[in-house]
Amino acid sequence: MKVTAQPSGDTQTFLLDGELDASSAVVLDAELNKPELLSYKKILIDCQRLSYISSAGLGVFISHLQRLQDANVKLVFFNMQEKVFNVFEILGLDSLMNIVQTEQEAQAA
C-alpha cells in the first residue's frame, strides 16, 4: 500500500492506495504518529483507492483516535468503497469514526 500525505492549511489529507494489512499498517502508523499532525485541525483519510482493510489496519486508526481527539484534531474518512465501509459497519466503527461520502463533506465536517 502507498500512503501519500497532502497538507493544506490546517488540514492534512492522507491518500491510501492499495491494501491496508498488517505489513502496510506499520507505514500508516508511522505517519499518524508524527507529532506535527497534532498541529492540524483535521486529518482527512481518502479511501477511494483503499481496496482492503484488515484488523491491523483498523487497529491503527483506533489506536490514534483518542490522541487526536484529546488534541482537538478531527479524523474524517471519505470516498470509502462499499466493501471497506462494510468492515467498519460490521464492527460498529461507523458510529465511532466520522465517515462521509465526499471530500467536500469531509472538509465541512
From TrEMBL:
<dbReference type="GO" id="GO:0043856">
    <property type="term" value="F:anti-sigma factor antagonist activity"/>
</dbReference>
<dbReference type="InterPro" id="IPR036513">
    <property type="entry name" value="STAS_dom_sf"/>
</dbReference>
<dbReference type="InterPro" id="IPR003658">
    <property type="entry name" value="Anti-sigma_ant"/>
</dbReference>
<dbReference type="Pfam" id="PF01740">
    <property type="entry name" value="STAS"/>
</dbReference>
<dbReference type="InterPro" id="IPR002645">
    <property type="entry name" value="STAS_dom"/>
</dbReference>
<protein>
    <recommendedName>
        <fullName>Anti-sigma factor antagonist</fullName>
    </recommendedName>
</protein>
<comment type="similarity">
    <text>Belongs to the anti-sigma-factor antagonist family.</text>
</comment>
<feature type="domain" description="STAS">
    <location>
        <begin position="1"/>
        <end position="109"/>
    </location>
</feature>
